[in-house]
């Protein structure tokens, strides 16, 4: 392998690695948003359940 082939191989590998890293970062952001959304849903369910339990206890 000559220096030009090595350089091309290196640049291609680096570009692929950077693209994979960018994809992983984007997926991580989507996952963080999904976790936040699920957390809010769980909190809302909990608040509704607490309200319901308190109302039932007052009957």
Question: Your description of this structure?
Answer:
The chain is mainly α and 59 residues long. Helix content is 95%, strand content 0%. The longest helix is centred in the middle third of the chain and has 56 residues. The termini are far apart. The mean pLDDT is 97.
Determine the mean pLDDT.
97
Task: Give the termini separation.
Answer: 84 Å
Q: Over the alpha carbons, how many angstroms does the gyration radius reach?
A: 25 Å
Low-pLDDT stretches: none
Helix content: over 70%
| Largest beta-sheet characterization | none
List the helices and strands in order.
H
Category by helix and strand content: mainly alpha
Count of individual helical segments: 1
Shape: rod-shaped
Oligomeric grouping of the chains: single chain
Lay out the secondary structure.
Elements: H1 3-58
Summarize the structure in short.
The chain is mainly α. The chain contains 1 helix and no strands.
Keywords:
59 residues; mainly alpha
């Amino acid at each position: 392998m000559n220096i030009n082939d090595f350089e091309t191989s290196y640049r291609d590998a680096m570009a692929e690695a950077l693209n994979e890293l960018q994809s992983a970062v984007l997926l991580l952001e989507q996952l963080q948003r999904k976790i936040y959304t699920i957390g809010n849903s769980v909190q809302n369910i909990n608040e509704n359940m607490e309200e319901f339990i308190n109302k039932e206890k007052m009957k």
